[in-house]
From TrEMBL:
Location relative to the cell: Nucleus
Domain of life, source organism: Eukaryota
Domain BHLH: 1-30
Source organism: Aramus guarauna
Protein's UniProt name: TFAP4 factor
Amino acid sequence: SLKTLIPHTDGEKLSKAAILQQTAEYIFSLEQEKTRLLQQNTQLKRFIQEFSGSSPKRRRAEDKDEGIGSPDIWEDEKAEDLRREMIELRQQLDKERSVRMMLEEQVRSLEAHMYPEKLKVIAQQVQLQQQQEQVRLLHQEKLEREQQIRTQLLPSHAPPAPTHHPTVIVPAPPPSHHVTVVTMGPSSVINT
């Protein structure tokens, strides 16, 4: 039944897999065409309303009382028109979604009948991915617990660890027999 619905050349022999592939591509192209037509339809409606001599916008503009304090009825009508259009578009979208879901379900059931081994492989892959995700989450939780323990054991206001500065011993001139010790650091101190 799918083969009769998809566009193809008459007399062409197709495998079941090719029929399913072409069906999926045909559904995708129909969705794109629908989106394009809906956009074009909306643009044309706006164009007709704005530029038609009998458009509601122009009639309201001509009949409108420009006096002080006159209510702007046109804005309310425009908002109502937009609400109606949104409702219609939502209804069309819901219909298209239900048709698409129905077709996708048919494709899945046909694939299940044609390729039961393939479904087993896919199910195993999904199960393996879930197991890998669980292992990753457990590893991440372990790392977080270790980090939490480290932060609890080390006080947050502990002074920084002492730094060691190199000590340089420089011999004094020979007659005085003095040794000068220089400690290098943030505030250099020379001790004799």
